[in-house]
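Box 3.1 — From sequence to structure: N-acetyltransferase domain-containing protein
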Amino acid sequence: MPNRDPSVTPITLRPARVSLEPTLTRDGALDGAWWPHSSDLHHELPVLVRFLEHRLGPILRVRLDTAAWYDVPAHLLVDGRFVRVSGFSATPNTIRVIRGSQDGFMLLVIPPHTAGPIASAAMSTAARTGNSLSANEILAPFDLLAHPSVSGMRMRRYQDSDREAVLALVDADRLPGQPSCTSHMLDQAMTGTSLPGPGPGPCDDIEHPRTDVLVNPYGHVAGAVSYATHRDRRAGQILWLHGHEMLDVVAALVRHALHRLGGGAPVHAFATALAPGLGLAGLPTGRRPVTRKVLENAGFVARDSWRYLRRTTPSDPRAPGCPMVEVVASTAPPGWWLKARDDDASAELVAQEPNDGLGVLWWFGAAAGHADEELERALLFQADALLREHAASETVLYAAGDPEPSWELFEAAGFAKIDHLVSFTRLYASAD
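Predicted structure (token representation):
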């Protein structure tokens, strides 16, 4: 007979949130990560076991950090089969799933309450091939969620041993469509090597950047900032910073950079193409509202801006080439400079040669008040034809300023608005 008691609510099992290291060779410190929805093992563990069995085969035993869960049973019944459960207190914030003959896989366990962007970055780090960070080293910045004060933390110079932690910080702020920051990208950013692109913010006139990190009392990196002065000493630059969008951390990073740059001279922020993984001047203000607010409170005002759009499908195969568009080879970035002109209007864009299927466009469009829809459509069609010829399956488009007349054209071509990139300038020294 059906249970009609209205006080009984069926349990809905939510899907497992798991990221595994792609090769499953177990060469790194961890083999992946698990982000449970709650601390109730009776609900969470069966879903995890079912997910893993599709990839790893039958799971016979689970060992975990008992302090992280409300109730730890000796065993659980999963699809008619018992799975043994035991403590593994020597390795907190992890779970070890065992197939047989002690053949196990170690996963990072991310606290259920963790914010989505931070959890995603931690999962990406734990599942990265060759990752050498322990669970505690990856989760250390999460202490700031419960203890947001930077009391007891200190700034120091970046060291090579900080590399994985800083890469994780950068990845936490990564925009959709941007590749993960690599060690090579980070090295470029730290040495002041501008990434290829036609955007504003040349960095040939700045001194060698300095990169410092904010560390907690345990030595774990909570944030990083890179800054430099102009060779003529007339201005300073906050090149990039990352701190998981934690207010106190970001504020401490900005204060430190301003102090080291000194007072009196103007300071620019996010105005050079040195941000690791982004490759263009500008702070993604939609994804990073805390950093924007901290800069504004410190006296910075918005200066230049770009709109960031993304298309996740190949270009339209019907897009024709157009004789009214002039195509000139470009070396920085490697690709093409496209110019379209008629008697009354002109429009321009730069197309970067696709890398691993990703094409990049820098849209300058027509001058204000002189937009020509047919001309701009011809320009975008020609760029699409070039990307298609070079096997682009995804495209990122940077549009200078606020190209309102071009939005319909971009949307018709399959682009979606992702974020607004803004550079900032502080012309005076406010009270920091």
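Summary of the box: Residues 18-145 form one domain.
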